[in-house]
Amino acid sequence: MLEARMAVQRLQAYHPPLAGRQGLRLDFNENTVGCSPRVLARMRALDAEALARYPDRELVEREVARFLGLDASQLLLTNGVDEGIHLLCSTYLEPEDEAVIVAPTFAMYSIFAQAEGAAFVEVRSGSDFSFPTEALLAKINPRTRFIAVANPNNPTGAAVSEDLLLQIADAAPQAAFLVDEAYFEFHGETLLARPARPANLFVARTFSKAYGLAGLRVGVLVGDSQQMAMVRRVASPYNVNAVALAVLPEALQDRAYVERYAAEVRRNRNLLEQELRALGLHYWPSRGNFVLVRIGSLYVEFVRSLRERGILVRDRNSDPGCEGAVRLTVGSDEHTRTLITALRAVVGDLSLGREVRA
Question: pTM of the predicted model, to two decimals?
Answer without folding.
Answer: 0.95
